[in-house]
Structures are given as structure tokens and as C-alpha cells.
Amino acid sequence: MPDLLLELRSEEIPARMQRKAAGDLKKLVTDALVEAGLTYEGAREYWTPRRLTLDIRGLNARSSDVREDIKGPATSAPEQAIQGFLRKAGLASIAEAHVHSDPKKGDFYVAHVVKPGRAADEIIAEVMPGIIRNFPWPKPMRSGAESARPGSLQWVRPLQSIVCTFGSETEETRVVPFEIGGIVAGNVTYGHRFHAPEPITVRRFEDYAASLEKAKVVLDAERRKQIIATDANNIAFANGLELVEDEGLLEEVSGLVEWPQVLMGTFEEDFLSIPSEIIRLTIKTNQKCFVTRKPGADTLSNHFILVSNIEAKDGGKEIVHGNGKVVRARLSDAKHFWLRDQGDLPDLDTLKASAEKFGLDLSKPLDQRMAKLDALNVTFHAKLGTQCERVARIRTLAAELAPIIGADPALVDRAVVLAKADLRTEAVGEFPELQGIMGRKYALLQGEDASVAEAIEDHYKPQGPSDRVPSGKVGLTVALADKLDTLIGFWAIDEKPTGSKDPYALRRAALGVIRMLLEKNIRLPLSTVVKDADLVSFFHDRLKVYLRDMGARHDLIDAVLTPDADDLLMVARRVEALTAFITSEEGRNLLAGTKRATQLLAAEEKKGTVVEVAVSPDLLTLDAEKALYAAIETASRDAAAAVAGEDFRSAMAALSTLRAPVDQFFTDVLVNDEDPAIRANRLALLSSIRAATGTVADFSKIAG
């Protein structure tokens, strides 16, 4: 079966867009071919900085014939209706139609229309211009003489050539001809911009990939990543160092080169006095280079690793020299930021009022930056006030949370006051991703308590499902207060997540609160800090997602989570205990008996049957119902005591004693006795089963 090779070659595509663009191209092309009636065996996408490539194997040479039955009017219909049917079906006369019979509706016309298949070349040539013209680039641009015309081609960078060949292994491939934006599809591509700029004629994917390799282009992005990672680790090892791995940087760098050449550069050791985080970000952000360290060391070495796209004749000496000059200049700036942040601000006299408001010590650099943040009235959100107004809210909330978590209130207050101060440092101004990290370093430099410094960094955590939660009690308190203030504030101004849109990462904030409460065993009744029922419901939804991700069954979560549940830790513990119980034999059997009891009771309640409020022991006539009554009394008492002591496993064990008496009751006892008083009493017994199990969970919501 034939194969299709497609290459769209352009000026350099931004690295962050390449992987998605290649995936989009694969989906758009394969979807269009399938919709047109073609099938294929496999498809794979490739990308480099200058090309998107698609290799589709086992494509049909032509689409299948399609038979369509078009139902027409009754044979007795007026001429006008029959003519309309002929036009719709494409028939010359009614004699070409077939007559079908229906026992109820009588005879009617049907047209059996066969649409012949089409050659794959024709379909490809038809669909490709639309795919290219409407390609979902985030920021497309126009270029060349065509750009002045309305409706001209837009591409992420100027499109230069298109390869589109089609054919099987046993025949010569042919070019699928189509044109867009003045570019005509052909069978010619080009290799490396500098090493192999000559044209290359290609037929199918195998010789295409091999020809590009000879022309200094590694087509497979994953292979480029592997080359870079292996060579970088090897060159570091050869110099007695280890590479500080960075998957995001590796992905980006692999999208900047077609022929990766890994080299090592150096900078002066004096720059190592700068924190390693600043060095790494400076070199990564400005030069797209990796950093190294001595094996097992916490701090960096003065060697960095760069990836060039050129195989230089001098072994890369000039490339290393040029990159080294830029790295040194950037590190010089970074050192300036680092030292400036440790000095006094020039306008201390203007900051006294702000210092008094927050109890700040203007002899300390970080306190000065916090006072400056207040004096500048830096906005947090137009409807939620300034950053410092937010700090004041967090301060109040943290004071309420500190005794619940067991944190030192004075240390918590100090941490809250300084938590946002590094937003006014030059290091964070240059590298916003260092907020919190730099605050911790500056706090330690000015002699703050270690738990305060730790809390300044940790109060942003966890920032995602893979991020750790704060380790210390002070950090936990500040982080909880910070996230709760965010959620309470945005709910107050009705800026809630909708569908897939969550611009303020409120789902992540709620998940962070849940993880801290559950992973650190914190008992926090939400109602003490959250007054909005809708926000409590939002927490419930996030808790369901979290527990399901942890392996809990959705029906068990629903059985435990009531609308007024505000202690999320207790909900999680109930779900855990219920999961263990319901998977045991006693649990499964008790569930079956309980569901039978509740369903029977619900049916009678729906019919209006009288059910006594409480069981009357005097009306219990059979041994099985007497035994069940006694078992319920004991199990209810023991389960309630266990729940009060938050021992949910013991509560489940207490309920498990009901299994045998419930089974025996349904074997020996007829609930709907002819005597209304006995019937009402036995229904009350069923109600007490529901009440007993309800101390732990709503068994009616459990599947099975």
C-alpha cells in the first residue's frame, strides 16, 4: 500500500511551539483523509526548528465506493414532490428509482446512489491547502509579496517549501501537486542551513530521513534530546562534574538545533558567591545553557554546557568564547542585583508609616522591601486591593489558624509580614520564578528565625500535584492562610473557575489546601474560616477528584461526603475505613442486607405506610427480630462511640456484627405482617439498621 511523505519547511519555528504543531499537523491530516474515505496503517510526526514532517504508512490508493439509499416520496405523490426527489438524488427520470413497500405507508420511491471512490492523490491535493491555510498557530504572520493581499497565507514564520510525495515501495513515488501562497508542493527539501544548503531530491520517508542525516539534520526530536543529554553528561563526567538536569531546558534546546554539538564553557569562580538558583536561571534564561556541579555537591561549579547548531572547524573555541562573554556579563548583572538587595533603600524616610503599620524594622533590608511594597500600593487585583491589604487579611487568618496547627503565633505573624517582601527585590524582579526562594535567603541573611525563613519560601507550596507541601508548622500555617485568602477573596468577587477556564489557578489552590490538611493530619473545620456554602461545595468537588486520583471509589466518597461536611481530614479517613470494610466478606454481606432493608423501607415510606418512630420491644415476637434489635442496640452504641473517638475502623468493626442477625432476620421474618402494629414496628427495626450504618456512611449510595 502507498505511503505519504509531507514536509512543511519554514524559517525557525519557536521551540515551545514545535511539538504541539507537529501533533496538530498529524491530527488534521489524518482526520481529513479518514473523513474523505481513506484508511491508513500508521502515522508519525517529526519536527526540527525548520520543518514539520509527517510519515503516513499504508494509505489506500483510493477511497471506497459509497452506496447511499435516498428515500423518496410515495408513488402517489404529486409531480412537484417527485421532481424534487429526482433533483436531490441526481436521477434523470423516476424510472431510475426503485419502489419499496411499507405495510402501513404503502409504496414509495428509493434511489440507490453509488458514489465512486476517488484517487488518494486527488483527496490529498484537495485537503492540504485548507489545512495549511487554517493551521492553528498561536501567533501566525504574513510574509513576502503575497502578504499585502487579503487572505494571504499566514504561518508561524515564512513558509519556504513543501514536500508531498505518494507511492508504494514497489513503484516510483509521485508528487501530489497543490499550491498555496505561491509555494508549489514538490519533492525537494534542504538540509542544514550552513553545512548543507544545497537542494535534496527525495522520494519516500526512508531516503528523506537518511538524506537529511547526511545533510547535518537529525530529524527525530527525541533522538536530538538523547544526543544532547548523553554528550552533556559525558563532557561533564570527563571534567569531574555532573550535569544539573533540566528536562524543560533540554526540550527547548533540542528545538533550537538541527545538528546538536555539545561544548563546555567556564566563568570566573568569583560569581559562585551568587546563590546557585540565580546562576542557574541567569545562564538558562539568557543563554539556554546547562549548569554543572561537583558530584553530590549542593552548589554549582563554574563550568556550563552549551549546545551549538554548528560543527565548528576550530572545535568550538570561538563559540565557547562568545557564549562565555555573554554569560559573564549576565552574571555580573545578577551579582549586582544580589548585592543591591542586601543594601538599604535610598528613601527610608518615606517608609516609616508603612513600617509602623506592619511592625517592620527599617534597619533590615527585607523589612525595607516590605515597607516599599506597601508604600507603592502595588495592586494584587483590582477588586481585591493591594498586595499589602492582602497581607493584612492573611495576617488575620493566619492568627486564627496558628493554634489549630500548633504553630508559634509570633513566628507565624513575622513570616506573614515578610512573605511577599521579596517581590520588591531586584533578583525577583529579574527572575519572578525565584519569589519565595530569594525571600528565604534574604531572611536568613538578616538573622530571621529559621522557621520564618522556611515559611517565606514554602508559603507558595504546593504549586502542583508533584510539588511537596510545606514541612514546618509555621510554613503550613502561612501557606494555608495564603491559599484560603485567595479562594475566599475570588469567591467574594464572583471570579470562580468556569469549565476549563481557571485564570487564577483556584483549583490548584483548593487542591493545595486539601493536600496540606490530609498529608499533615490537620483538623480544620472549614466553616470556621469559609462562610460561603458554594466555596465549601467547591472544596468537596476538589476532594472527590483528589481521593479518586488516590484510588478511592466514587460511590464510597459519595456515601461519606455530606453537604455539611467541613472536616476534610475526617472525610478522607472515613473513606479509607469504608474502603477497607466494604472489600471484606462481612462488609459485602452487610451491604447487601442493609441495602435490602433500606430499599424495602423506602418503598413502604413512599406508599405512606406507617413506620413507628422507635422500636417497641414488646411487639417483637420472633427470635430473629429480637436478636436483630439487641445487635442494633449494641452496634449503634459501639459505632457511635468509635466515631466520636474518630476511630472509623472500629466503627466499621462494630457494624460488622450486624451481618449475621440481618441475614437471619430476612430469612425468618416477614416484614409486612398482617397486623399493622407489628408491621410498623418491624419497619422501625429496618429504620434503625439505616440509622446505625448512617453513623459512618450512607450505605444506599454504595454500588453492589
Describe the protein.
The chain has 704 residues and is an alpha+beta fold. Helices cover 49% and strands 13% of the residues. The strands form six sheets. The chain has a five-stranded antiparallel β-sheet with strand order 2-3-1-7-8, with helices on one face. A hairpin with a 2-residue loop joins strand 2 and strand 3. Helix 15 (450-458) packs parallel to helix 16 (473-492). The relative contact order is 0.05. It catalyses: tRNA(Gly) + glycine + ATP = glycyl-tRNA(Gly) + AMP + diphosphate. Residues 595-690 form the DALR anticodon binding domain. Pfam families: DALR_1 (PF05746), tRNA_synt_2f (PF02092). It is found in: Cytoplasm.
Q: What is the structure about, briefly put?
A:
The protein is α+β, with helices and mostly antiparallel strands. Helix 5 (221-238) packs across helix 6, helix 11 (387-405) packs across helix 16 and helix 12 (409-419) packs across helix 16 (473-492).
Q: What is the fold's blueprint, element by element?
A:
Blueprint: E1 3-10, H1 15-35, E2 42-48, E3 51-57, E4 66-74, H2 79-89, E5 98-102, E6 106-115, H3 120-133, E7 159-167, E8 174-175, E9 179-180, E10 183-184, E11 188-190, E12 199-201, H4 205-214, H5 221-238, E13 242-243, H6 247-254, E14 261-266, H7 276-287, E15 290-293, E16 303-308, H8 317-340, H9 352-358, H10 365-375, E17 379-381, E18 385-386, H11 387-405, H12 409-419, H13 426-430, H14 437-445, H15 450-458, H16 473-492, H17 506-519, H18 533-549, H19 554-560, H20 568-582, H21 585-607, H22 623-644, H23 648-656, H24 659-668, H25 676-694
Antiparallel strand pairs: 1-3, 1-7, 2-3, 4-6, 5-6, 7-8, 9-10, 11-12, 13-15, 14-16, 15-16, 17-18
